[in-house]
Amino acid sequence: MSVLTGSVLTVDALRIDAGAIPLVRDVSFAIGPGERVGLIGESGSGKSLTALSLLGLLPEGVRASGSARLDGVPGDLVGADERELSKVRGKRVSMVFQEPMTALNPVMRVGDQVAEVMLLHRTQPSRARALAAAVDLLDRVRLPEPKATARAYPHQLSGGQRQRVMLAIALANDPALLICDEPTTALDVTVQAQMLELIVELTAERDSALLFITHDLAVVATVCERVLVMYGGRVVESGDVYEVFTAPRHPYTDGLLAASDLSAVDERGRLRTIPGVVPGGGEFPDGCVFRNRCPRATDQCVQTPGWTGTPERGFACWHPVGGGQ
Ligand SMILES: Nc1ncnc2c1ncn2[C@@H]1O[C@H](COP(=O)(O)OP(=O)(O)OP(=O)(O)O)[C@@H](O)[C@H]1O
């Protein structure tokens, strides 16, 4: 069991079964405040079920046991009743799914949907204040003309815009933990990069921790600090992204890296796995547009705009080398 003191989320010996069929076994991990953790693994390895169990959203006939504690929530999330879970979902923990159309209400204006989650948890005192806060949030997720967009219905927005609305809903109550399950898979590459930037920026602003499920190792390398690798319903490896991706200990992780075509080195002998990582050093990718936008920059960071990290750990640009648009 790995438990960090002061963790936002502590999962211990989680198991998930569909009747007599074991789907997830002995999953234990912890996430610290504001920490960004990637959850990777092949299709069917149990990533989504692990996430859904934290929100009490497992499918019919699928049951979780073990323990999952979330900071600020008195009881255990595993085994909590619907009444308890509905107080937590959308407030202490939120989730962004791959397909926003299935998560948004098609017959409700998007501004009302953002306002609704604040009214539900009484984080805004009135509908008027919640609507004003919703417009601000739509602006923060960089939707054009947020006042007009607030009055739109989901079908009037593009896929990328709908996903921004989902992010606004998920972050409306400043959750301690945001879970993203393949949030950018359905988006084209440019929109995907903008969405990832927003997720990192807005979670960092709120000090929300992030559990990011993806098949895309490059996304993990650019977004996350730590990674958990699932295989056959278990976590087989975990650790610092740079360490796991450069020196995987488990043969499955090794295979995953090889299969992802990310283990190749570039012309400068650097791993493509972590675009732009320069351990202990700093060098700009040409044309990077993220200058001066690092949301996690601290006094310890060498102020190398567009990069996150510390001199000890090196710097990870969220953008592929030379990938400025
Ligand atoms: N309702 C269900 N009943 C029985 N088995 C299920 C159910 N839902 C999922 N499973 C099984 O549980 C396992 C884990 O599923 P899960 O969706 O968590 O995988 P995943 O790692 O998220 O995969 P993907 O990357 O494809 O989304 C799979 O073998 C899946 O077939």
From TrEMBL:
It comes from the Bacteria. NCBIfam families: oligo_HPY. One of its GO terms (biological process) is peptide transport. This is ABC transporter ATP-binding protein. SUPFAM superfamilies: P-loop containing nucleoside triphosphate hydrolases. The lineage of its organism: Bacteria, Bacillati, Actinomycetota, Actinomycetes, Micromonosporales. It is a peripheral membrane protein. Residues 8-257 form the ABC transporter domain. PANTHER family: DIPEPTIDE TRANSPORT ATP-BINDING PROTEIN DPPD, OLIGOPEPTIDE TRANSPORT ATP-BINDING PROTEIN APPD.
